[in-house]
User: Fold this.
Amino acid sequence: MGSSLAYLKNEASYLLAADYPALWGDQEALHPFLRLLHHSQRYQRQVGFASLYSILNKIFDLAPPVLIGIAVDLVVKRQDSLFARWGLASFEQQLLALASLSFVIWSLESLFEYAYARSWRNLAQQIQHDLRLEAYAHIQEMDLAFFEERSSGVLLSILNDDINQLERFLDGGANEVLQVTTTVVVIGGIFFYLAPNVAIWGMLPMPFILWGSVIFQRRLAPRYRDVREKAGLLNERLANNITGIQTIKSFTAEPYELERLRWDSEAYQQSNRRAIRLSAAYVPLIRFLILFGFTGTLVLGGLAAFQGRLDVGAYSTMVYLIQRLLWPLTRLGETLDQYQRAMASTQRVLNLLETPIAIGTGDRPLDPCHVQGEVRFEAVSFAYAGRAPVLKNVTLHVPAGQTIAIVGSTGSGKSTLVKLLLRFYEVQEGRILIDGVDIREYCLRDLRRAIGWVSQDVFLFHGTVFENIAYGSPGATLADVIHAAKLAEAHDFIEQLPQGYDTVVGERGQKLSGGQRQRLAIARAILKDPPILVLDEATSAVDNETEAAIQRSLAQITAHRTTIAIAHRLSTIRHANCIYVLEGGEIVEQGNHEALLAQQGVYYGLWQVQAGILAT
Assistant:
């Protein structure tokens, strides 16, 4: 049975791909179930066995009504009963055989119930686990523009709520569908074998039930898509508010934010109500259809038994079986509800997984140990989506082992240069080279391993000081971490923390000051020991005394290492080999500190302002 199901799935995939190649190529045009089937072919074996267990369980579960009919015939017919025809003459032998058969059937039914429950639940957990890891891994490969267009709350909703919704359906709904299908096939076969005329009336509601299910499915699908969208917006609101709780408190905006959350929560509630209003009507309508089938079997079967055209045992079997056939169909409403919720979630998860990765990796290896560190920007231009160009034909050269600085007003494109170097975004015009090779040719992971980046927006993970400094350097020892912390002027304050290097810094490092977080970030970059070091406002959050100490350390750290320093404080970069002044996305001046002052241009004006000579 398992192999047959796998074969049918392969055939369905083949036919879809062969007959509708354009449709198969446009994954979003396919029904979510077909997309999930195509995506999950690696689970064919598990699905096959779980399906087989569900079908066998239902077959043995339907056997007791048949045994009741045999028992009635055994009492009524005695020597003409089924067991008598099998050679069991005495009533006691027949009764013992019936009891033994009942024991075997009940045992097998219980065994296969355990088997299918375990198989489906394990499969649901496995698919949930794999999908979440696959979706998260895919998200990690996306460029920064992807995250600018989507909120973290929506992404978290997909990774958690939507994948959990699919898991809940696989946990029970798939088994329910299989067992209802098995029930219809088995009982329909028995009915048509015993009494075709009665079977026709008993099975009459089935087409209407199936038709009603399809209609409900079509009408529920858009309602549950709306539910998932509203859930994503609600999660987005919660994630933003928790992240920005300090700002909310400082502006005493708690009532305002509570009201905004109320709006989003009520929108989610109303969306669910619209879906519930329709889904709740399913079971009562199905019950009316079931009533006709049950009544028909009861009356027509009774007349046939009374007239001798149907055995009493067969009539008893049919009365029991018609209930086993029709009443479980009322659960289709709940199963259909789970299915539609799962398909709405599946569509969001697979849409995420099928979002193309904008920045691909090259295939050329880059060993950090062999990087010379020469960096060139050649006629580089770049613009963020929907905005004016940030960089315009920028050309600059960083000789291997030297330190260059980039200065300019806010929004001039300084940090964008660094993001392009790390390939967080892709160059739109021109190219960037490291050691004479276009960075797009390098393996992306190797490229980023070769660059140490200290951002002005420091991010620390919820963990210990040691874990945050050693992040990205998994083999680092405590001695290595302490050495890096000393170079970053962080060791002294770390020693004063309650547990020293084992102190938990809190989410985003909220238990530390801005200067302390920045020093840990510098220590993290130092420990990485990259051939190319990028300092993006690396001392912007420290006081003057600490800045002076860090500058002394950086003089040692940057020696014989290619360094790109971005700074607003010109005092921190005055000793750079070359300083580039960036304004309006273009390099307007370049030279060392003394040469730029002598030009009395833009840099000279900035220096005068910061030195306090001119009033600002």
Remarks:
- The radius of gyration is 36 Å.
- Strands lie at 375-383, 389-398, 403-407, 429-434, 437-438, 451-454, 532-536, 562-566, 578-583, 586-591.
- The chain has two domains: 49-353, 364-450+574-616.
- Residues 91-140 form the longest helix (50 residues).
